[in-house]
Specification:
Helix content is 70%, strand content 0%. With 158 residues, it is mainly α. It has one domain. Helix 1 runs antiparallel to helix 5 and helix 4 runs antiparallel to helix 5.
């Protein structure tokens, strides 16, 4: 079950990045001067994917082999988290940066539903989406990270 959820989390990451890219392009280069239902649907799909990714990551955080259970299995204390790089990444940096980016994306989606001026709306949404993308790209465990942290680009099965 763990491997299936981890694979689902990995596939969702790419769907999420694709939808975030679509939303960035649609907010940077608006083809219409009013925000219609199609634009709102792209944002809605991004939010849905974000929450599915959150639910899988909560399971992985509490029950996965790089989550909280890592502390009890390997005999670490909570005070060791900030001194061991891979513990700090998996238990502090990665979850906090992803939660921060999720809240930024939620704010951008809320702005898309507001009745503000169109130019200000697109400008603010594109800024927030790009800021969230930068945070996400910094928090993903890319293959060129520290060898203890690095993961495959696509993790389908083991």
């Amino acid at each position: 079950m763990y491997n299936g959820i981890l694979s689902f989390h990995s596939v969702l990451r790419w769907i999420f990045l694709f939808l975030l890219g679509v939303n960035i392009v649609r907010s940077l280069f608006p083809t219409i001067k009013h925000y219609n239902g199609e634009n709102l649907n792209w944002g809605r799909w991004l939010i849905i994917t974000t929450y599915f990714n959150l639910f899988t990551s909560v399971y992985l955080y509490f029950f996965g082999k790089y989550g909280i259970t890592l502390l009890s299995i390997q005999g670490y204390r909570y005070s060791d988290i900030f001194y061991i790089p891979y513990l700090r990444f998996w238990l502090v940096e990665h979850p906090l940066m992803m939660l921060l980016s999720m809240s930024i994306i939620g704010t951008a989606y809320k702005i898309s539903k507001s009745n503000t001026l169109i130019d200000n709306k697109y400008r603010m949404m594109s800024f927030l989406y790009i800021m969230a993308l930068c945070i996400i790209l910094a928090a993903i465990p890319w293959p060129f990270h520290n060898p203890e942290i690095a993961r495959e680009v696509v993790r389908i099965s083991y």
